[in-house]
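pasting for ref
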Amino acid sequence: MKKLLVFLLFLFVFSSDCYSQFTPSIHNYTLAEYKAGNQNWDITRADNGKVYVANNSGLLEYDALVWKFFPLPNKTIIRSVLAVDDVVYTGSYEEFGYWKRDDFGTLEYFSLSKMIPDLISPNEEIWEIVSFNGKIIFRSFLNIYIYDFENVIQLRPSSVIISCSVVDENLYVSTLNEGVFLLKGKTLEPFYFNEVLLDTKIISINKYKDKLLLMTSLKGSFFLDKGRLIPTNFEINKQIQRHQLNEFSILDSGDMVFGTIKDGVFLTDNNGKSKFHISKENGLFNNTILGQSIDNTGNLWLGLDNGISNIELNSSNYFFNDISGKLGAVYDIVKYKGVIYIGTNTGLFWLDENEKLQFIEGSQGQVWDLEIIEGDLLCGHNEGTFIVDKNKFTNISTHTGGWTIKKVPERKHTYIQGTYSGLVKFEKISGEWHVKHLGKTTIPSRFLVFENPHTAWVAHATKGVFKFNFDDNFDTITSVKDYHHKGISSNYNIRVYNIRNNISFKSNEGWQKYEPILDSIVPYELLNDLLGKNSYIISDDNTDLFALKSKDGFIKFRSFNTAHDEFFLNDVFLKNRYIVGYENVSKINDSSYALNLDNGFMVINSTSITDANLYKPDIESISISDSPITLTHINEDQIDFKFKENIAVELSSSKSLNHFFEYNISEADVAEDDSLWYKIDGNRVEFSNLIDGDYLISFRTSDNAGNVSAIQSLNVDVYPPWYRDTLGYILYILLAGLTIVVFYSLHNKKIAKEQRLIKIKYQKAQQELLREKTLENEKRIVELKNESLQNEIKLKSKQLANNAMALVKKNETLQDIKKDLMINKEGFNNYYSYKKLVKKLDNSIVLKDEWEVFENNFSQVHDEFFVALKTKHSKLTPKDLKICAYIKMNLSSKEIAPLMNISVRGVETHRYRLKKKLNLENDISLVDYLLNIKN
């Protein structure tokens, strides 16, 4: 509640009037986000930070990161909800009971109405649940049910029950027509009745100082003091009567919250004076408040007719929201003469005394810059530059696109403005503004800073940075130097600043600075370390406290002066409202800043900053391969699962805001590396493909500003796969033994086989040797036989030759005898005897039978000779064959002649003719031919 007091003090400082259009941070959750019914009848936040909502479709649970939906078994509408400790009680159509987490972390429903099935009235709905004296009270319009954690008791008054309120040690039961009752034990006793309250819906009864405060739906509010009913004089009474009060709460500070059916929420002080009004007009998603609850951090949760909202009453930062859309994108905000001026893409607006937007006529178009200079409010506009005074909008420069304007150092009343078409000089002389374009260049100049009185730097959107030099009177630009080849890391999206007399540049690659000695641009490691490579300044750079925008979407306020406390804005709902690339933080006064947004702006109070409390994550559920496991002793015991199974862990940190989760995984015996933290998308992370071993999985809650919570640890043991476990090792031993046996057996078989093969080889070799020996012997035998035959042939040839020679000798002898007889034929007395003797001699000389015997013997010796002769020379006559045989026997012509009974000359003649018949050349001997003739 201290934050609320700070807010009220801030409003008092900011303006003498109450800014009812200003609201705390409002977070709206749409049906598309929580994915259930549109109507949300009741809402509560548990001590662990989780929000539970009674929704048309069932029960909603929100852990500040993820919405979950749990339907009732009978699928009916849940009308009421209350979280007490770790139990969530709900009431619905003819049904009430409670939800509790089982050992697996799953929210499970238990019906209480089943304990009294005969007492539940037809069509009865439970509209309210309160906790009282260790009991849970369920209220419908007809009955009250008291649950003492053992039994359920029903109480039924005679009138319609409107509400139940706990004040101190009493439970007040308000009825429609019979007044107010007190619960005493198990009975309802009348407490107060007044005809004024007839047919009146008493929304709640609360303690107000030393009295009771009765809030009604349409009749306003009353004090009940010592039996007297006194109307209050609250200023808010008219509003709640007109818009029908439906919910009421009192903050610890005494301030009051009124939720209405028709016009959202009103916040008042303890005297009923309105402080601010939150409705659809300034940011609430819906105007019908069906349920409201204030949590222990001071935040207001609203169940709406369409959606859910959270209003951060404990925030020190507040918003001006324009839901109508006419404001558009805001580019600059300034407070001038007590009036707030807002420059947007649609024109210039100001807030009147009722905080209503007023448009300044003639300002339509893009407003870039609002600056209070020399007592005047100057507006840099796409049509030029104007002086603003309430509704007056006076043009003093036609040079379009007044992006920024900077005072010339050490020179009075002289300013340089960066425009679409270059640099423009503004000088105030005798109360009048004189404007002159400095020429030389038409470079669009959004970012402009001075290095010294006559030197300025300009950053171009795509062409890098330039240094300008001016003449003494600032009437012209004397030189322009391009530095895009002088060390600048990138020519795109360059911003230029003068930070503590250092010309500094911010590009996509980080921070750099100008080094005058080198006349070059070099890396600026100091700013890279202090501010971050991905952060850029979105406020004035010459103040002690400046604003940085990071790529992660949060805005950090910091200073080079250690006396200032640093703080940051890390609202995830702001990300969608930034004017990306044109974020701007304007200083309103010493402690107040304004951040431009789409359709509004945010007012930041630097004197009271909410600490970013991040809480240790809770493990909601753990599942192994989609099978949940119990969460008992999760911090003491180790979770074991098989190899190749995956483990999924669901986390929550319901008390943390704008957070996400990170995890670190390491082997159990290895110290965790603080740098290896990995962001989790959502609230669930799954680990798969872990090798066997012991692991320590650490979880923490983090935010974009680098804040972290305490660590939640989980010990995990991944069993080795069966092939690296005992069974595997036994199997390996068995396989090894079997392998050895098989190897030994195969080895023996191999040896036996080799021995058998060797034996067979030797046997074959021996057989081959024997065969070769046999063949050799047979060959030798054949050779011997051939030799014997040859010898026999030679012998027979010799015998044949001898026979032929003997025949020749015989024929010669007979020839000699015949010759002698012919010489001495005269000596025969008997001529007839002579003739007979000569005839015998002739017959002995030429005996045909002897030739046939010779031929026969010759054929046996030379069996192939005649065949070969006859085959090659078929025209040979028997006489030719005969002489060939004699020549074959190597007989001379003289020896052949007697055998042929012809002369030697006749033999020679016959030999000559025979050579012709055999077609022999002259150089070929007939004897050689016949000796070597073969088939």
